[in-house]
């Protein structure tokens, strides 16, 4: 079960100036503690998975609903979560392999950036920029957490 | 940052007012303003006297005029929109004046020669350098709506469009030749036919005010343009009427490029761009004529994207749209280049894309790796968080500011908070002092729930619904002083 990081975004009008660091930290820390609190017995791998999802979720929430990638990311997260809650159905046919006859340069990027498949190139670039910004913020945050815990963290 | 938000928000309001008033109302406002303003040189007292009659917006409170007098007489031009008052109230300084001055210069030009403009110009560098990127992207994204409108309208464009509309309006106003609001709106109204463009030209000529730009247009429409000296090549190539019809559009386009390329050097940039043949902008926009009536803001934004064919280039509407698109893409690639470390020397889109992809992949891998590490850190995490917060509190000395900012941020979801206070209060991450952290969290949980009403378009439920977990968030772990002096080793990106 994914840690609940859902929180109404208090910055609905956040333009493209990147995520709110504070909100990111707030959400992620909360999610983190929740993960550790709810299932302390689960394996590290499962927990790390959850933490990772929490990281992405808090990232997406901090970015706000105005970004396509954050919406797509949350869609994906919630979809996965709903799917896990339901019986473990066999995975659907999945994404049909795109006939890559013409390799557009943006294909790799589209795969990486959530929600990138449905965009045109310009928006894709913009979303990528925002996504990179948010990702780097998230990484910094996590790194600082890890650092603050210190080498004696275990 | 927050100044930007407020500015944009205010401009959005003002632009909304423009659009709501449409042509006559806005022009009436402008004309109402102009005789008053022309009668009054930039004088605080007279401006103060002017302010009350012009104050249509309730936002123009008393403290604001006294707050900064120099920008006052710019103010009442903005009082038409009214939204900028919030800007100036929030951020009083030279930078926000740049915007109001820009807007005012637009109004000024209607009545007086742009003698005001030189004083306002210096604001642009300070302003443009900061907002340039935002302006660039919002305008670009807004113009991208043009493409996406053809392909597939998406909701993500809608807010971007709005922002772009705002920025567009700003940029439109940022030059002396910017049209009045009605013209900006009437331009898209002239979509669809070249005849209309000529009508528009004549209408513009007729209704032109005393501005230099207008006079220049009427006098020698060859391209004496924007007060810049870039007329020569344009003069020979364009017919007067077309140029007049398109001059405003070109100014808008040039404004866009100017804004993008460090505004005040608009002359040089415009010179470079003005190796342009005549082009019926309406041709370019005629394909959007059908969508004209859809949305005022969209139409006004369409008016922003007008382009001109460069000399020797095809004037096909498709190729011009393609050119616009390519330039947008290049702008964004440049921005990405700055964002991705170590990519400044890389040239070429393909290599750049690969670098970006690698960088995104590396970031995602880092997140995964760090999450693994965090999963392993389990037992101490509860109070490590507190420690972390406290440590960051030590590092950042703006704790009251951070608290205030945090509370404000959480409590006023509709108003963009003073992000800047938060931003510079914290070096890397958290700035919430641990002792007040819980308190602020608890205090602001309910306001968040009640205040936040605006759902995202698709994620309605998840954004809104929330069970605020753990009000008793982190028990009572006191901040451990053990880790106080540990500097957060932010990832060396």
From TrEMBL, chain A:
Coiled-coil stretches: none
Record-level GO BP terms: regulation of DNA-templated transcription
Keywords for this protein: Nucleus, Transcription, Transcription regulation
Compartments, as annotated in UniProt: Nucleus
PROSITE patterns referenced in this protein's UniProt entry, alphabetically: BHLH (PS50888)
Keyword Transcription among record annotations: yes
Gene Ontology CC terms: nucleus
A single MF term (Gene Ontology): transcription cis-regulatory region binding
InterPro entries: bHLH_AtIBH1-like (IPR044549), bHLH_dom (IPR011598), HLH_DNA-bd_sf (IPR036638), IBH1-like (IPR044660), IBH1_N (IPR059002)
Main location: nucleus
Domain BHLH: 86-135
Signal peptide positions on this chain: none
SUPFAM superfamilies per UniProt: HLH, helix-loop-helix DNA-binding domain (SSF47459)
Region listing for Disordered, in residue ranges: 88-110
Family, as annotated: Belongs to the bHLH protein family.
PANTHER family assigned to the protein according to its UniProt record, in alphabetical order: TRANSCRIPTION FACTOR IBH1, TRANSCRIPTION FACTOR IBH1-LIKE 1
Entry protein name: BHLH domain-containing protein
Organism: Musa balbisiana
Taxonomic placement: Eukaryota, Viridiplantae, Streptophyta, Embryophyta, Tracheophyta
Automatic annotation (TrEMBL), chain B:
Membrane-crossing segments per the record: none
Coarse class of the protein's main subcellular location: nucleus
GO cellular component labels: nucleus
Biased amino acid composition, Polar residues: 209-219, 228-241
Cell location: Nucleus
Domain BHLH: 313-363
Disordered as annotated region, ranges: 1-27, 191-298
Molecular function, one GO term: protein dimerization activity
Pfam families assigned to the protein according to its UniProt record, in alphabetical order: HLH
Bias (Basic and acidic residues) ranges: 1-20, 197-207, 270-281
Entry keyword set: Nucleus, Transcription, Transcription regulation
Similarity field: Belongs to the bHLH protein family.
Protein name: BHLH domain-containing protein
């Amino acid at each position: 079960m994914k840690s609940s990081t859902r929180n109404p975004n208090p910055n609905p009008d956040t333009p493209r100036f990147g995520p709110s660091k504070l909100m990111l930290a707030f959400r992620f820390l909360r999610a983190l503690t929740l993960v550790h609190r709810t299932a302390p017995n689960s394996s590290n791998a499962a927990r790390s998975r959850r933490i990772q999802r929490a990281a992405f979720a808090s990232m997406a929430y901090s970015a706000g609903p105005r970004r396509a990638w954050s919406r797509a990311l949350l869609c994906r997260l919630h979809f996965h979560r709903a799917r896990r809650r339901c019986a473990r159905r066999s995975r659907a046919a999945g994404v049909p392999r795109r006939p890559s006859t013409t390799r557009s340069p943006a294909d790799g990027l589209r795969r990486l950036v959530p929600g990138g498949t449905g965009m045109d190139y310009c928006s894709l670039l913009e979303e990528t920029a925002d996504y990179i910004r948010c990702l780097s913020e998230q990484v910094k945050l996590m790194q600082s957490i890890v650092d603050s815990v210190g080498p004696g963290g275990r | 940052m927050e100044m930007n938000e407020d500015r944009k928000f205010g401009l959005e309001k003002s632009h909304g007012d423009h659009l709501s008033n449409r042509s006559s109302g806005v022009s009436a406002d402008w004309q109402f303003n102009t005789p008053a303003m022309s009668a009054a040189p930039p004088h605080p007292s007279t401006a103060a006297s002017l302010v009350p009659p012009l104050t249509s917006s309730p936002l123009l409170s008393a403290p604001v005029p006294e707050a900064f007098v120099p920008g006052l007489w710019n103010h009442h031009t903005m009082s038409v929109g009214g939204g900028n008052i919030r800007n100036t109230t929030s951020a009083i300084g030279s930078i926000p004046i740049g915007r109001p001055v820009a807007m005012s210069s637009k109004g000024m030009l209607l009545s007086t020669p742009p003698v005001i403009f030189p004083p306002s110009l210096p604001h642009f560098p300070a302003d443009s350098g900061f907002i340039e990127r935002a302006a660039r992207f919002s305008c670009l994204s807004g113009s991208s709506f043009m493409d996406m409108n053809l392909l597939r309208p998406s909701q993500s464009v809608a807010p971007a469009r709005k922002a772009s509309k705002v920025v567009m309006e700003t940029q439109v106003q940022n030059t002396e030749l910017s049209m009045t609001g009605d013209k900006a709106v009437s331009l898209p109204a002239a979509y669809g036919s070249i005849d209309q463009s000529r009508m528009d030209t004549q209408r513009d000529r007729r209704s032109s005010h005393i501005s230099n730009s207008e006079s220049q247009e009427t006098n020698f429409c060859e391209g004496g343009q924007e007060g810049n000296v870039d007329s020569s090549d344009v003069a020979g190539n364009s017919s007067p009427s077309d140029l007049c019809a398109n001059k405003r559009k070109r100014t808008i386009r040039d404004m866009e490029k100017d804004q993008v390329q460090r505004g005040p050097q608009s002359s040089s940039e415009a010179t470079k761009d003005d190796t342009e043949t005549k082009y019926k902008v309406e041709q370019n926009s005629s394909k959007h004529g059908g969508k004209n009536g859809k949305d005022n803001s969209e139409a006004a934004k369409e008016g922003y994207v007008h382009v001109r064919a460069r000399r020797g280039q095809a004037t096909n509407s498709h190729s011009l749209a393609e050119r616009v698109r390519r330039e947008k893409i290049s702008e964004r690639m440049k921005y990405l280049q700055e964002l991705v470390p170590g990519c400044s020397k890389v040239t070429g889109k393909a290599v750049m894309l690969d670098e970006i992809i690698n960088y995104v992949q590396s970031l995602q891998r880092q997140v995964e790796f760090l999450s693994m590490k965090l999963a392993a850190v389990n037992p101490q995490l509860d109070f490590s968080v507190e420690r972390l917060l406290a440590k960051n509190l030590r590092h950042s000395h703006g704790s009251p500011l951070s608290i205030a900012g945090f509370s404000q941020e959480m409590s006023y979801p509709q108003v963009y908070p003073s992000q800047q206070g938060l931003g510079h209060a914290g070096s890397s991450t958290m700035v919430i002092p641990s002792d007040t952290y819980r308190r602020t969290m608890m205090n602001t949980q309910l306001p968040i729930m009640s205040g936040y009403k605006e759902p995202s378009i698709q994620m309605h439920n998840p954004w809104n619904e929330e069970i605020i977990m753990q009000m008793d968030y982190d028990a009572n772990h006191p901040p451990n002083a053990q880790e106080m002096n540990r500097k957060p080793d932010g990832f060396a990106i």
